[in-house]
From TrEMBL, chain A:
The organism of origin for this protein: Desulfacinum hydrothermale DSM 13146
Pfam families, per the entry: Fer4, Fer4_20, Fer4_7, Pyr_redox_2
PANTHER family: COB--COM HETERODISULFIDE REDUCTASE IRON-SULFUR SUBUNIT A, FERREDOXIN:COB-COM HETERODISULFIDE REDUCTASE SUBUNIT A
Protein name, entry field: NADPH-dependent glutamate synthase beta chain
Superkingdom, taxonomy of origin: Bacteria
TrEMBL record, chain B:
Pfam short name (any one): FlpD
Name of the protein in its database record: F420-non-reducing hydrogenase subunit D
Domain F420-non-reducing hydrogenase iron-sulfur subunit D: 10-131
Keywords: Iron, Iron-sulfur, Metal-binding, Oxidoreductase
Length: 1377, 159
């Protein structure tokens, strides 16, 4: 496994959010479906668990990666965007000590890499850097330096490499001396780059900052002449860094070069800079195309030359000079001749007169990768110029060095160094910059200086010079996506002096960006990397939880089973033109609508539309977007959940809206097949939600407004048009590419719909043994089904591993709690600052002083972070030392931190219930930040209230009850047998009770599964496994007679005829099934041709001639379902009809087969059967419940009359078989419900504890439900639910004991009047009535601690421990004191 | 005479599973609201008995707020059904005492931080407009009908 870093230590993060406050980067909030933004360091959502923050950081931003100096451009751009210039400069100074200089001369590879160019143009990163450098006063700049060392380091050469090395060495704490040959430091920056590009005061300012760091600069001191390396080492310098640059011009190597009037460009510029050359002839020729050439040409113009020609042998696009330099030169009147090479300096008596040149053509590329210029014969040109400036490049001057100082050189006279560590072969001698690289960008020299400084530090400290340096992560390009609606904006440009003015002086040409320009330019940044690594969060986090250096980790785990639950992706509707989703903000997905409705959503639950935040009056939902659609998306399946969520959204939207809201759902078939869903649908209709059976033609904007025009074909085939304020797309569910790849990697098969392939009788097993699945990976499904499958997968995954249970668990050893009975309260109060979260508002020392005066308090102190590990240990020590017997912690919420502090008490030998918390962070400091006085007052009140309660706290004991490790399963159908077998395979004895003579239940009558397999085969196998398993005891023809006890300790009496069996068991699973309704309509019973589904299955199983000889077969759907008697959908019938109809088609290809239906509900991948049935020519005709088909028995056949909806005419058929999709109905086993104290709904289905989150549990602990007893469902769902019930039951069976006590209610029998009010209100059946004592008695094993009983007790005989009336009265009183 | 403006004291009973969570979230979201409430966390709104409400008013609370889970969302299945009936009954009783409008019940889920803040703001303003709880002043007069009340207004147990 590869774990992605979070960059925040979850253990340390307190969730205070200080980091997010300072984070400069805002990113689209994925949780809000992009409707809002969050900072790069953020909490996934407000109530996320864990509550720690995380950093969204992708691959390094391309601008930063492209920089040879690794200057973090992303960060300083982000900080500039919000006006935090000083921090921006601090970011730059981490890697670059001369931003003002570099920003004026850098060829900015960062900008070439900038992804903004995909929208418009790259961000003007370099100009932004200059803006920061020019704006922030360097005397404000804070750079951290290491402790001062007593070693000194010599830097030879004061150019960019030397200065950079000196800066970083000084920051490492060294004493640094720069030895510079010239008058002043700066090297090329000072002597080659002219003032109009880089004013020298900018250089002096940044060099001055180095001097402030203590760098000593000895000028006019040359290596070889004034000092030697040996000498420096002998003087006690711990190391020497050689950075003498590449100051020597390369000769022209043509005849006449020595004539008067031929100069090297670097020499020319140096003399101009030094003021020793201030006159030039009218005509000047410059040979070369680098920056030096153009600087020389431009300087010559400024000195009065009228005709300056730059001669370059290749094409303009190969020009090595910076484009800005070239452009400005041309503006200043410099002419550029390309593809021309000089061949001779024409001289006249030793004075140059001009250049004889030839034209060149470009041949194949040379070693530098550029095309080689070759002279063209007979193309001579003469260029008149008494001053010829050679600028063919520069080279290091290392001739002396290599001999005198024993530093070997390489090609082009560069010094030999290690490319990573910058070591020369001489120990202690390092070199970098142009003396090693040859002429290169200055930022490269800066980087070399920085890396050499790091090497020198390691060398001096005796560390490995290479460790962690070469492993530069490979360049990847996983960046934040560019928003689709990003609008192009022009790039900010600096104002420049007019060329006519420029050539009269040496004043700076470019004048810098204004603040407004800079900020709006910086705001265009696309935040490629997400987090920009400005490290502001590190600074802000008092808990020191931020870990920017975390890396992905490979984790190897040895496991016996794997469960896959990667979930689904909502279909992206951008791919449909029909819905205008990509183009119109008011067409949104259902998930976006969910966020809009949410109280924590982008609009705090205020129902508004995105474009203009107007409250919509008309909302349309369009169903089946990305589902049941083979044309646009290959998602032929039904997404199973969209109908229900659309109905829910419409209903909730109407509730949210303060005015009447029109809500319309456009659908094909309404598929509300789940438990209570049909009722919800009917209620929605009744409440005014409009349902339109239709096909959508198009969604288009209404001109002149943000509204949308919907065109659709209605159920009668007519085209209609309606306008809406907001259109919600009910987008389907699909497996993401990532999930598909995961499946491929793990070698599990996928279905045609790209969901994990499972089998009907093994619904949570993938095709690979040992790999299990739950949730939407195995097909689109809703929450209850996903939760059931989750438990089922846990059950299946542990079946083979049950021997390993508890083999790798560890138990925490705690000291025995101290007995505090009879002690006077000694309360310790700890008041948390939570960094500055509380302490920044509440005056914590004042609250501590106040707490010390409160009754019972013997100790009070403040903590920086109460939840940190070291503070926990300190508090435990104080509890022991001060003999505290009550503890009050005033900090954050008990909802999140009470368990942690209870552990602290336990570790200190105190009963954990002797703790009380005061939530002075969430409920005080965080909400009263603008009023420290009021917040301090409230904190005191809250501490006083907590102390008042603490005075009355008493230790609460938890005791253990044994668990009877046996299960009772009631019902021997597929669900009951599956549950029993699962439990037995986990090693638990099971008693399986079946009231009939045989196992198998309704499945005995089923013919084929939806997958086309014979049910009988699988069923026989299951029955065999159950009856042969040694741990399963089957009782046939047996019923439950009586039940006593509670979770873990049931005692049940079984009755088989006259025989009685007593069973002790820890859990019960109810799997009593359901039955087929015997219809009293459609002529059922009056003619043998009319039969139910199960009866047709019997014909199919027996293979008689009924189907084979039929000419016409009619299926009628919803027989007894979805009507006023049974207002529920029987869920299985549509699929059953498809299976049966296809089987009939197979056996009798000539028969006419009709299906009369209301809505086809082949949810999920069952939709494929529907598609297949239609492809096979089975005719589907919809009827409305108002005019159902009529079946009239005739002598041989039966007449079926129905209304054809499109023709609006009654049609009649003569049918040989009429198959009724008869409802599934409950056994209405009220007696059983009462025996186990579990509820049933009005349809007779057992009612689970929570429909979504606890779908197989009852509120009564230890009793579980599965199969048809819960609700109609297909085999695979019954089996999954049975495994889920077994899994949930095992949470009881596998526990070593049941812990009871703690926060539970107790009865003081002496005060109980026996009114039994409490017995009736207890939702958990935990209270019984003791006839002998004439008092109520509470079973602590069943009590959940809600306190409802205590509140109804008129004589205050019941107390909820931990929340007793006395405690609450004390709190109320002190709250108001 | 005390010239300070009247600042109501409000006791806020909050269910641990919903309203207390909303108050926590209001903190996380830094949503400010008046300082007048003094929070008391309970496990379920159904834990609040008439005793507690009366005690609060006797002790001088100007308002009592109860926050519970939306119907159908009770952590203990049906506690809030009891709460809603009890509060309706208590409102009648309090009207009789002359404390009308001073008890407020609201369903606030743990996600509804903004609703929590809005409700607290509105209720605080309402109590501010109603003025101080008249009961403590009554208790201090010698002719109080509250014979047998101790100095805090608590009646001795007359069992």
């Amino acid at each position: 496994m590869r774990t992605q870093p979070r960059y925040v230590d979850v253990e340390r993060c307190t969730g205070c959010g200080d980091c997010a406050q300072v984070c400069p980067v805002s990113l689209p909030d994925r949780f809000e479906q992009g409707l809002g933004t969050h900072k790069a360091i953020h909490k996934h959502y407000a109530q996320a668990i864990p509550g720690a923050y995380a950093i969204e950081k992708l691959d390094r931003s391309p601008c930063t990666s492209a920089c040879p100096g690794m200057v973090n451009a992303h960060a300083y751009v982000a900080l500039t965007a919000i006006g935090r210039y000083k921090e921006a400069l601090e970011v730059i100074y981490r890697t670059l000590p001369f931003p003002g200089v570099i920003s004026r001369i850098c060829p900015h590879p960062c900008e070439s890499a900038c992804r903004r160019k995909d929208v418009d143009e790259p961000i003007a990163i370099c100009d932004l850097k200059r803006f920061i450098a020019d704006t922030v006063d360097l005397s404000d700049l804070h750079v951290t330096t290491g402790p001062k060392r007593n070693q000194k380091v010599a830097v030879v050469g004061g150019g960019p490499a030397g200065l950079s090395a000196a800066y970083f060495l000084a920051r490492h704490g060294f004493s640094v001396t720069i030895f510079e040959a010239e008058e002043e430091v700066g090297g090329m920056l000072r002597y080659v780059i002219p003032d109009y590009v880089l004013p020298k005061d900018v250089l002096d300012r940044e060099v001055g900052f180095l001097k402030r760091l203590g760098v000593e600069m000895r000028c006019r001191t040359a290596l070889g002449r004034d000092v030697t390396i040996d000498g420096l080492l002998a003087q006690g310098y711990a190391a020497v860094f050689v950075a003498t640059g590449a100051p020597k011009g390369i000769p022209l190597q043509i005849p006449g070069e020595d004539a008067n009037g031929v100069m090297q460009g670097v020499d020319f510029l140096r003399r101009v800079q030094q003021g020793t050359l201030d006159e030039v002839p009218t005509k000047v020729a410059v040979v070369g195309g680098d920056d030096t050439a153009f600087y020389a040409a431009r300087s010559a113009r400024r000195l009065g030359a009228e005709e300056v020609i730059v001669i370059y042998s290749r094409d303009l696009d190969q020009l090595p000079a910076r484009p800005e330099n070239y452009r400005e030169a041309v503006e200043e009147g410099v002419r550029v001749l390309t593809r021309v090479s000089p061949v001779e300096v024409v001289e006249e008596s030793g004075q140059a007169r001009g250049l004889r040149c030839v034209r060149t053509t470009l041949k194949e590329a040379d070693t530098s990768g550029r095309r080689r210029p070759v002279p063209e014969a007979g193309s001579d040109i003469f260029i008149e110029a008494p001053l010829i400036i050679a600028a063919l490049g520069r080279t290091p001057d290392t001739a002396g060095l290599s001999e005198a100082e024993s530093l070997p050189t390489e090609r082009f006279a560069t010094l030999q160094v290690d490319p990573v560590t910058f070591e020369t072969p001489r120990p202690g001698v390092f070199a970098g910059g142009e003396v090693c690289s040859g002429p290169w960008v200055a930022i490269g020299a800066v980087a070399a200086g920085r890396e050499a400084a790091e090497s020198i530090r390691r060398y001096v400290d005796g560390e490995d010079l290479r460790a962690d340096r070469e492993s530069l992560e490979p360049l990847r390009r996983h960046f934040m996506p560019i928003p689709e609606n990003e609008t192009p904006r022009p790039r900010a440009t600096m104002p420049r002096r007019d060329p006519s003015e420029r050539i009269t002086n040496f004043r700076e040409v470019n004048l810098g960006l204004s603040e407004m320009q800079a900020r709006s330019e910086a705001k265009k940044c696309l935040n490629c990397m997400g987090c920009c690594e400005c490290l502001a969060c590190v600074e802000a986090c008092r808990a020191e939880a931020v870990r920017h250096d975390e890396r992905p980790q490979e984790v190897r785990l040895e496991v016996g089973s794997v469960i896959l639950a990667p979930g689904f992706r909502s279909v992206d509707p951008s791919r449909y033109d029909t819905y205008a989703y990509a183009d119109h903000p008011n067409v949104i997905t259902a998930l976006e609508f969910e966020r809009i409705l949410s109280a924590t959503g982008p609009f705090q639950g205020h129902l508004v539309r995105p474009s203009d935040h107007k409250e919509p009056r008309r909302i349309a939902w369009l169903q089946c977007v990305g589902s049941r659609d083979m044309h646009h998306c290959d998602n032929g399946y039904c997404s199973a959940v969209c109908c229900m969520y659309a109905v829910k959204e419409a209903v909730i939207a109407r509730e949210h809206s303060p005015y009447p809201l029109e809500t319309t759902i456009f659908f094909m078939d309404m598929r509300t097949y789940g438990k209570d869903f049909e009722r919800y649908y009917e209620k929605a209709k009744a409440s005014g939600v409009r349902f339109v059976r239709s096909r959508i033609h198009s969604v288009e904007p209404v001109a002149g407004s943000d509204d949308l025009r919907l065109r659709y074909v209605d159920g009668d085939g007519r085209m209609r048009e309606e306008d809406y304020d907001l259109v919600v797309l009910s987008t389907g569910l699909e497996s993401s590419e990532e999930t598909v790849r995961l499946a491929e990697r793990l070698g599990i098969s996928l279905s045609p719909g790209r969901f994990a392939q499972t089998r009907i009788f093994a619904p949570v097993s993938t095709s690979r043994p040992g790999v299990y699945v739950c949730g939407a990976l195995s097909g689109p499904k809703d929450i209850p089904q996903s939760v059931m499958e989750a438990s089922a997968a846990a059950c299946a995954a542990t079946e083979a591993l049950c021997d390993a249970r508890y083999s790798r668990t560890r138990t925490v050893e705690l000291p025995a709690p101290r007995d505090v009975t009879g002690e006077k309260p000694r309360i310790g109060v700890f008041i948390c600052n939570c960094g500055i979260n509380i302490g920044g508002v509440v005056r914590v020392p004042e609250v501590v002083a106040y707490a010390k005066e409160l009754p019972g308090v013997v100790y009070a102190q403040e903590n920086l972070f109460s939840c940190s590990q070291d503070t926990q240990e300190k508090m435990a020590e104080i509890i022991g030392r001060e003999k505290l017997n009550r503890v009050v912690i005033a900090a954050c919420s008990p909802r999140t931190h009470e368990p942690l502090f209870q552990e602290t008490l336990s570790a200190a030998g105190l009963n954990p219930y002797l703790l009380e918390m005061a939530n002075i962070r969430n409920l005080d400091a965080w909400v009263h930040g603008d009023d420290p006085d009021g917040a301090t007052r409230k904190a005191k009140d809250m501490v006083r209230m907590a102390v008042a309660k603490a005075l009355l706290l008493e230790p609460l004991e938890q005791t253990s009850l044994p668990v009877s490790k046996k299960a009772l399963v009631v019902g021997g159908g597929v669900a009951g047998m599956t549950a029993a077998l699962s439990l037995a395979r986990h090693g638990y004895p099971v008693v399986l009770v079946e009231k009939s003579k045989q196992l198998g239940g309704q499945a005995n009558r089923l013919h084929k599964t939806a997958a086309g397999d014979d049910v009988a085969d699988a069923l026989n196998e299951l029955v065999g496994q159950v009856t042969n398993h040694p741990l399963v005891t089957v009782h046939l023809e047996t019923e439950i007679q009586s039940v006593e006890g509670f979770v873990g300790n049931f005692h049940t009496c079984l009755a088989c005829g006259e025989t009685r069996h007593e069973v002790d068991h820890g859990v019960t699973i109810i799997a009593t099934g359901a039955k087929e309704w015997k219809p009293d309509i459609y002529g059922y019973g009056a003619h043998r041709a009319v039969m139910t589904h199960l009866e047709l299955d019997e014909h199919l199983k027996s293979n008689d001639q009924v189907v084979a000889t039929a000419r016409t077969i009619v299926f009628i759907q919803c027989v007894g379902s979805r009507d006023s008697t049974r207002a529920y959908c029987s869920k299985v019938c549509c699929t059953h009809t498809m299976v049966s109809a296809l089987e009939c088609r197979k056996r009798n290809p000539d028969a006419d087969i009709y299906v009369l239906y209301r809505d086809i509900r082949t949810y999920g991948e069952r939709e494929a059967l529907y598609r297949e049935a239609r492809a096979q020519g089975i005719v589907f005709i919809r009827y409305s419940p108002g005019s159902p088909p009529r079946v009239t028995p005739g002598p041989e056949r039966v007449a079926v009359t129905f209304r054809e909806p499109i023709l609006e005419r009654d049609l009649a058929l003569e049918a040989d078989v009429v198959c009724l999709a008869s409802a599934i109905v409950s056994h209405h086993n009220n007696a059983l419900a009462q025996l186990f104290k579990v509820p049933m709904d009005s349809d007779g289905w057992f009612l689970e504890a929570h429909q979504k989150l606890r779908p197989v549990d009852f509120a009564t602990e230890g009793v579980f439900v599965c199969g048809l007893a819960h609700y109609p469902k297909p085999l695979e769902e019954s089996i999954a639910q049975a495994k889920a019930a077994a899994s949930r039951a095992m949470t009881v069976l596998a526990s070593r004991a049941i812990r009871v006590g703690g926060v539970v209610s107790v009865v003081d029998a002496s005060r109980c009047s026996g009114c039994m009010g409490c017995v009736n209100v207890c939702p958990f059946g935990a209270i019984g009535f003791d006839e002998e004592m004439r008092a109520a008695r509470i079973n602590p094993a069943l009590c959940k601690g809600c306190g409802a009983c205590a509140a109804v007790c008129p004589s205050e005989a019941i107390a909820l421990k931990g929340f007793t009336n006395q405690q609450l009265y004390a709190v109320i009183k002190t709250a108001l004191a | 005479m005390d010239t300070k403006p009247f600042e109501p004291k409000i006791v806020a009973f909050m269910c641990n599973w919903c309203t207390y969570g909303a108050a926590d979230l209001a903190g996380v979201s830094r949503l400010p609201y008046p300082q007048n409430i003094r929070p008391i966390r309970v496990m379920c709104s159904a834990t609040i008995s008439p005793h507690h409400i009366l005690r609060a008013f006797q002790s001088g609370a100007d308002g009592v707020f109860i926050g519970g889970c939306h119907i159908g969302d009770c952590h203990y299945i049906k506690g809030n059904y009891m709460t809603i009936k009890r509060v309706a009954f208590m409102e009648d009783l309090l009207n009789w005492f002359g404390l009308e409008g001073r008890l407020h019940l609201e369903w606030i889920s743990s996600a509804e931080a903004q609703k929590f803040v809005d409700v607290i703001r509105r209720f605080t303003e309402k109590i501010r407009a109603l003025g101080p709880n008249p009961i403590p002043a009554l208790l201090k007069t010698p002719k109080a009908i509250w014979n047998g009340a101790d100095d805090e207004g608590h009646c001795a147990n007359v069992a």
